[in-house]
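User: I'm putting together notes for a lab meeting next week and I want to include a structural view of one of the chains we've been expressing. I don't have a solved structure, so I'd like a prediction I can at least talk through. The sequence is below, exactly as it appears in our construct file.
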Amino acid sequence: MHFGQDVTGLAFAEDRGHWIARTAAGERFAGRSVVLATGSWLAPRVPDIRGLDRFAGEVLHTARWEPGRDLADKRIAVIGTGATAVQVTPELAKQARRLKVFQRTPRWILPRPDTMLGNRLLASVPLSRSAAERALLWAHEPWALPPERRHVVTSLIEQLARAHLRHRVSDDWMRRLLTPDYRPGDRPLLVSNEYYPTLQRPNCKLVTWPIATISETGIRTADAVEHQFDCIILATGRDPAVPMLPFPVVGRQGTGLAEEWAGGVHGYKGICIAGFPNLFFIPEPHPGVSDSSALLYQGARIDYALRAITTIERENIRVLDVTREAQQRDGTALRVHPPVDVRSSTGRYRMPHRPGFGSMLYPATAVEYAKLAAELQLSDYALNCSVSAAAGTESPGGNGTRRRRSAAPSPMSTRMNSPTGPSDPDAT
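Assistant: Thanks for the context. Below is the predicted structure for the 428-residue chain, given as structure tokens.
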């Protein structure tokens, strides 16, 4: 394990069958297999608001938050009402002298079910945690269905969200302002017990007039009101249109990943890219989910990567490279069966850097994706083994030792069952 290393580039060495990682310190690390877990949507989304660069006070973005920031007794504006805003607004209201939340689009918000009784139950009753996890999973799975097949679920969720709003907000006019004009599921649902009460605090106000411009001292809205602030907080999320990798990745024949994805992001099962052997992506290239927990999808990807690496080490495979045909077949399935987010009325998840693709990982449920990723189909890969083709012969392994291969041929489809991650014998 190497901590504090800033990787500046990753390149595949065809002659050795290794990936070479370069760091800012000038070091080089070689590995037969690489798992890229660099995250997705790395760049903050900065709203295009006239005059933002003229504001004389502090402008902070939740995606670049600095720990220990002192906002006590300040006049604070929060722009945005998405998942991040719902989380930070209650905490900011505890510190601010005055807090105003600028809302463009209200969101459907559900109550958070966790209670002290529930926590004690999960801790003391056998199998209760597993049952609760399964219940949450199946409660979210219908959101991966097309809208025409989830009317009942949509209606139930809307009733629950409306009841939560009525229970938490006493003022009729504020309830109208906080009620969305679209059906649940067109945008990701939010969960909070604190957001609605926070908006009703004496030092907090909800502003629904559009922002016209930002001046040196504050925000001017379309009703010609000037709102004075010491600090503006952009809770506007991250920008999926910005390249996802923080450093260049170069595969076979000198092809860069940026070049490979110039016409649109694509991959095989959302894990591998043709021309980039022994390289496994988590969570790109199709990371976003709104129907269920991202951990379910990423867990399936991690299992797939570990099992593929286990196969590489066990069979002494030098290069495991998904074929263009298999990748094209997988991409066609995504286009023919677009995910629910692409089919939804808002079209919100069709990202500008992904022509023809939405950001969803797989056009179905998390359970179905886990089944898809449960099998390593070697017939979809081009293999280049380090061992001799003769049965029972020996050849140098990746770590310089000699390995014996059995006479039995490797199966073209390997069922994967909870392996442990192998160590990389070629890492330096």
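A couple of points you could mention at the meeting. The first strand starts at residue 7 and ends at 13. The CA atoms of residues 286 and 361 lie 5 Å apart.

User: Perfect, that's what I needed.
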